[in-house]
Design goal:
491 residues; alpha/beta; FAD/NAD(P)-binding domain; Polyamine Oxidase, Chain A, domain 2; 7-stranded mixed sheet; 14 helices; binds flavin-adenine dinucleotide
Length: 491
């Protein structure tokens, strides 16, 4: 941990035309786009010793495994930039005569995709079915019908009510006003009471946003379901693309599709200031333990806003700094467990995604799922969103726990659905994301703060991060990078 006051003073300087700060998906997407448009003399500086940010991954002798982002659903074919990227990445292998993508079978999540441990049994799919009443089933049907309406709904501007990227959704108030209320209030207004339906919807909010029904905006809650409109000759909107290393695969593809020059790790940006000819960025090299300044004509800042509020102190007026209090981030704990064997209870055998009804976690993913050799030894990636009233308090609580504390929590959840698993665990690595993902609280997505934080400064400094979309997914980070790159190119 470095404190800015204790960092050494800069002793040298370098120059570039465009500087990209950060090395996650949005940053790599920006670099790829700029280079595709013929831009050169670009530097990218990342503070960690690796690229990828929340799409980072690890590897051991059994498998590669994700530390964060692990899948994307098939994208909407109208998202041309993303479709082009997937084609270039050979995730899409071709198109049929109607222009529908053909997906590489190797990257489509193999069956069986997901299962739920409920009422003592592993059932197929995550929507509760085993042992639930007719009345609950009817509520699921009613919810599905409501989502179908929102999926095809359009605004008076001709735009979809719900789409990805978020910013391409209609501006019509009839839909946007759903952002003013919580998902819980929306569901109450629609008279949904089934405990199984409410559990399932909360599981979805936890899975995508790290938040619960009360703390998620209704617009965001609906968006999760209604914005998925992907198509493929060999898949549909519910189909998922995944890799053992999760979205680390897509991260590496972004890197491969741009020049390998100008990429620098271990470079922590700690200050940004304006000059007449451009911007001065102070950087601390965490390996060489020295500071230097980068003089750049333009910059794209892809750090999350909780970092930017410190970096921009000298650049924006104090009252504007206020907007950053509206950016709340859900903390997450991820564990990668190498197991010799997974003892099973009744029902469907191991799937890619395995969810346990009524627990705190959103379950675990089998990193070896795409492997054709079905060995007993596996790496499973366990996802625990830390949902609480205050994200700050939850984050502090998380930091106060040590490895053994987390291990106990994680193993006891797994023991519930896999009695005896403890004896088969070979190794466990645990990672805490203090600010894992932006939480779309009511009034955040269509509120002022999100829009203002993304506004360029002096036509020299541009912004890209998935938190500026209000929804933390690959597609948004990818879009944010291209959006900022286009702003740079437009000068
Ligand atoms: C637990 C978890 C699970 C997820 N699962 C999925 C999933 O399955 N599918 C999905 O699509 N998305 C998922 N996501 C969302 C994921 O965050 C996005 O898909 C995407 O990786 C975000 O990219 P980004 O560029 O917006 O941000 P980041 O990943 O936050 O990238 C920002 C980068 O900037 C760097 N940086 C920050 N400050 C500085 C500084 N001062 N100097 C230099 N560098 C700096 C950071 O180190 C980081 O590399 C998940 C996220 C989490 C936390």
């Amino acid at each position: 941990m470095h404190h800015i006051e204790t960092l050494p003073k800069p002793t040298r300087s370098i120059e570039t035309d465009t500087l990209i700060i950060g090395g996650g998906i949005s940053a790599l997407s920006a670099k790829r786009w700029l280079e595709k448009q013929g831009q050169r003399n670009i530097l990218l500086v990342e503070m960690d010793d690796h690229f990828g940010g929340n799409s980072h991954f690890g590897k051991n002798s059994v498998s590669a495994y994700p530390w964060g982002a692990h899948y994307i659903p098939l994208p909407d074919i109208r998202n041309i930039e993303l479709i082009d990227f997937l084609y270039e990445s050979k995730v899409i292998t071709g198109f049929d005569s109607l222009g529908i993508p053909v997906y590489n079978e190797y990257y489509l999540c193999q069956d069986p995709e997901e299962r739920l441990f409920i009422n003592g049994l592993w059932q197929e799919g995550v929507i509760p079915e085993a042992g639930i009443h007719q009345k609950d089933k009817e509520e699921f049907k009613k919810f599905a019908a409501l989502i179908n309406y929102y999926k095809s709904a359009k605004g008076t501007d001709g735009k979809d009510a719900f789409t990805i990227p978020v910013d391409k959704s209609t501006t019509d108030d009839i839909f946007r006003k759903l952002d003013k209320i919580s998902f819980k209030t929306f569901l109450d207004n629609e008279a949904f009471t089934s405990k199984y339906l409410l559990w399932y919807l909360e599981y979805c909010c936890k899975d995508d946003y790290g938040s619960n029904l009360e703390s998620t905006s209704a617009w965001a809650g609906i968006h999760y379901f209604a914005a998925r409109k992907g198509k493929g000759t060999n898949g549909n909107s519910g189909t998922i693309l995944t890799w053992p290393q999760g979205n680390g695969f897509l991260m590496e593809q972004l890197k491969l599709q741009s020049s390998q020059s100008g990429l620098m790790c271990n470079q922590l940006v700690y200050n940004i200031s304006n000059t007449n000819s451009g911007i001065d960025v102070s950087v601390y090299d965490t390996q060489k333990q020295e500071s230097y300044v980068i003089h750049t004509k333009k910059a794209i800042l892809t750090a999350p806003q909780y970092v930017n509020k410190h970096l921009l102190k000298n650049l924006i007026p104090e009252d504007k700094l206020n907007i950053y209090k509206d950016f709340e981030y859900a903390p997450w704990v991820i564990a990668n467990l190498t197991v010799n064997k997974l003892p099973q209870l009744r029902g469907l055998p191991l799937c890619w995604d395995n969810v346990i009804y009524g627990t705190q976690s959103v379950g675990y993913v089998n990193a070896n799922h795409q492997d054709l050799a079905n060995s007993l030894k596996k790496v499973i990636t366990f996802y625990l969103p830390l949902v609480g009233k205050s994200t700050d308090a939850t984050r502090k609580n998380a930091q106060a726990k040590n490895y053994e504390d987390w291990l106990k929590i994680i193993v006891s959840e797994l023991e519930y659905a896999h009695p005896g698993i403890s004896t088969f665990i070979e190794h466990v690595d645990i990672w805490i994301w203090g600010h894992g993902m932006i939480a779309p609280r009511p009034d955040f997505i269509w509120g002022q703060s999100r829009r203002m934080a993304g506004e360029p400064i002096n036509n020299k400094l541009f912004f890209a991060h998935s938190d500026l979309s209000g929804i933390s997914i690959f597609e948004e980070a990818f879009y944010q990078g291209i959006k900022a790159a286009k702003q740079v190119l437009a000068i």
